[in-house]
Give the backbone structure.
Amino acid sequence: MRVAFVDTLYFVALYRRFIAAIRIDVIRLLLPAHEQGATIGVAQSAGSLARIVGPIFAATLLDYYAPLPYLICSAVSLFTALLVVQRLCREAQPVVPRHEADLAK
């Protein structure tokens, strides 16, 4: 049992390293050079803060009502997914300049 737990922790740590590298690369590709350092610093600081506050927040909710941390995290994830879909749908619509729209009439 203990070996399986240690193996699981190893894969979780490995997974987190890959995700951290991918997140930094995505930020680097999306932003201009002069904004990259500050934005990556804020993203890493937010991740560190989440690793400190998250377990305390979840444990408090778990003591109050067992399913509550799962329900709240599910609601936050759903809300975030809806915001992403809304933004992607808005960006996917082609923008036609006003003078071209007038010419098409």
Q: What stands out?
A: The radius of gyration is 21 Å. The longest helix spans residues 33-64. The chain has four helices and no strands. The CA atoms of residues 21 and 27 lie 10 Å apart.
